[in-house]
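Why run this: before we spend reagent on co-expression, it is cheaper to look at a predicted model of the complex and decide which construct boundaries make sense. The entries below are exactly what would go into the expression plan.
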Amino acid sequence: MPTIQSIAGELEPHPDVALVERVRGGDLSAYDTLVRKYERQLFRIAQHITQNREDAEDVMQDAFLKAYEKLEQFQGNSKFYTWLVRIAVNESLMRLRKRRTSKMVSIDEDIETEEGSVPRDLADWAPDPEQNYNQAELGEILRKTIQGLPQGFRIVFVLRDVEGLSTEETAETLGLSIPAVKSRLLRARLQLRERLSRYFHRKKGLDK
Amino acid sequence: MTCKDFLALLDDMIDDTVTVEVRAELQAHLGRCPHCEVIFNTTRKTIEIYRSHEIYDLPSGLRDRLHSAIMARCKKGC
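The model came back. Tokens follow.
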């Protein structure tokens, strides 16, 4: 399965670069284009982190406003999208801290350090196990399952596997080392797999 | 190759970042170990399901409202 970063060419300048330059030159319509291009992704990321719709709406707006204000600080040595995601992740974590005043929130929260054991599993899933559920049921299962992951695993999985950031971009965005991203990604994937197995095994061979 | 070795390279196998030689070793292990084959297939499927199902959709009405609010504030200089 090719990753997104392996498809993207490194030689040609990213189309966002020209848009950012236009915004810097005072062309607000170019920023409108950038907002439209990435608003759904930022909303999703914010919702995954805050797990609250209103917070996600606020985070998305604040992140775009902050990015606009700080556009001069954007160096262009990372992708504009990665830079934007970093702002949204920080805004989301700040929002969580506000809600949970008694407790510090960080992406290190709930992370156990010991290595997991090798999973043993002989019960395979059906070829298209999600077909056993309607869209609403499946959405609920997927939401519930990912919400149960420790936050530090969930953010890495979302950035890397759902939003298509590279390992390096994810590490840069979250201020983590590359080995830390890799280790969290593996554990996130395995935990999600195991949790989904409960649903996808249960229906197997049963009449719905 | 043991199951533990396989697991350590599972992500690289899924992300297709292994060399031809390592891939061949991993494939050989998969051929011998039904446990790891299930883990490999279902982990890959897990990623695919999350990638292809938008679980936090932004309805177009809300999207337009938020978009207008952002642009209105940018126009005012935030």
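Chain A touches chain B through 51 residues (CB under 8 Å). Chain A has two domains: 12-99, 129-202. Bring this page to Monday's planning discussion.
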